[in-house]
Amino acid sequence: MANSQLTAATKKAFKHHFESMVPLLLSEWPQLTKENLAATEGDVDSTVVYISDETDRTKTLVRRQINELATLVEVDAPAPGKVAANGASSASLEPAGPLGIDKSSIDNLLDDLESRTENLIQELKAEMLPELEKRARGNLGQSLLIALGIGFVLGLILRGKRG
């Protein structure tokens, strides 16, 4: 969806890294002007609207390209003495990566999905496969007739198209 809401952390991260992204945005879309990009003041939505209007591309495509460009921006480590205006350290305000993507959580999610998939495959092999083998062996004649019937029908269909 083009109008999907971005998280507050993503918007803050984009605003924080906006100055370092401007040269990348200008190199990606040369028809943009630095002044108009600066006028967006690092707001993700305003930047996406501006770029999509200038380039005649969809907002969704522009968001994807901006996310790709954000991965190219090196995240500077916060200085140890830096403190935010509200007294919190700036490290707590910064997301884990560009635009708030935490790669370790994605890796953990993928590992979890892989282990669940492996468990499902093992259950399938342990429970369903023996039962299916019994049915196929018990009804060997029926299985052979079904296979021959399918082969015969496919042969007729394919032969009819060739000749």
Topology:
Layout (H helix, E strand, L loop, with lengths): L7 H9 L1 H11 L5 H6 L4 H12 L3 H14 L17 H4 L9 H36 L1 H23 L1
Helix pairs in contact: 4-5, 7-8
- Cα distance, first to last residue? 50 Å
Number of strands: 0
Total domain units = 2
The unreliable regions are 1-5, 75-95
Beta-strand content bin? under 5%
Q: What gyration radius follows from the Cα positions, in whole Å?
A: 28 Å
Report the total helices.
Answer: 8
Structural class, by secondary structure, is: mainly alpha
Organism: Shackletoniella antarctica
Transmembrane segments: 140-158
Protein name: DUF883 domain-containing protein
Keywords: Membrane, Transmembrane, Transmembrane helix
Name a few traits of the molecule.
163 residues, single chain, DUF883 domain-containing protein, mainly alpha, membrane, 2 domains, transmembrane, transmembrane helix
Provide a short characterization of the protein structure.
The chain has helices spanning 8-16, 18-28, 34-39, 44-55, 59-72, 90-93, 103-138, 140-162. With 163 residues, it is mainly α.
Commentary on this structure:
By secondary structure, this protein is mainly α. Helices cover 71% and strands 0% of the residues. It contains 8 helices and no strands. The chain has helices at 8-16, 18-28, 34-39, 44-55, 59-72, 90-93, 103-138, 140-162. The longest helix is centred in the C-terminal third of the chain and has 36 residues, at 103-138. The two termini are 50 Å apart.
